[in-house]
Write a structure and sequence with these properties.
Blueprint: E1 2-8, H1 11-17, H2 21-32, H3 39-49, H4 55-66, E2 72-75, E3 78-83, E4 88-94, E5 99-103, H5 110-117, E6 121-125, E7 130-133
Antiparallel strand pairs: 1-5, 1-6, 2-3, 3-4, 4-5, 6-7
Length: 142
Amino acid sequence: MRRFYIFSIREELLTLYKDNPGNLYKILESIYSMKDEEFTYGYNLFKQICISIDNLELSNRLYLTMHNDLVYTKIDNEHIINNLYKDEVSILKIGKSHIILDSNNSYSSFFAFLNKYNKNYFVCDFNEGDYFFLNSIELIVH
């Protein structure tokens, strides 16, 4: 199972990191791995890079878009895709600072929706060392 952290990057930083996303990943990874006593510094750095996510609006839009899809369910704050045909199980949790996506694949059907909603999403898998701007991958629309 892969765990993706998805961040909404400030518009003014997109051009700076568009051609070199590795530097953005290194900064976010350093914030991710900070110790508790470094919390204030990490929080301030994070706020300079990322903007808040309107989690209620995003959650409602996702539900309204996908609720008729047979492979989709929503339980509390978890949006779930269980598509046996495509061998995909993805669980999306939307927070104010970031989105967490657990998936059994390197690609999730949630990516297409998220990219339509916000072109500034940056995706990190800190366990695998993988990262990309969501709008830079070829998205599969189902």
